[in-house]
TrEMBL record:
InterPro entries: DUF3870 (IPR024617)
Cited Pfam families: DUF3870
Domain DUF3870: 3-93
Protein name (Swiss-Prot/TrEMBL): Uncharacterized protein DUF3870
Species of provenance: Actinomycetospora succinea
């Protein structure tokens, strides 16, 4: 299944100049609940790959805070708050979908 998370980008970022919002979209294996693919609307390949690699293999419901902490400690760009917001939105939408077992 596909789940998208959104957050507003600051206009001081490359992606913010092109788009108003950051989108992070993930493909979830509904049997395991794990992210099997991810993509963003971040402007650079490196930033997109950073987020995709961070999300690959993650359980967004159980690992959300670890993912957010990693972004806060390792991403030093103007889009950090937008990335965190989009990750939180992803987890919220996934939880609301009811498609996966809920958190323990």
């Amino acid at each position: 299944m596909l789940v998208a998370g959104y957050a507003q980008l600051p206009q001081s970022t490359g992606a913010g100049v092109m788009w108003r919002h950051l989108t992070i979209i993930v493909r979830i294996d509904t049997r395991s609940g794990l992210v099997v693919d991810a993509s963003t609307t971040l402007a650079t390949r490196v930033a997109d790959a950073f987020v995709a690699e961070l999300l690959f293999g993650a359980d967004l419901l159980r690992d959300q805070e670890h993912i957010v902490t990693t972004v806060e400690r390792a991403y030093f760009g103007n889009g950090r708050k937008a990335i965190v917001g989009a990750i939180r939105d992803l987890a919220s939408r996934l939880r609301e979908s009811g498609a996966l077992p809920t958190e323990p």
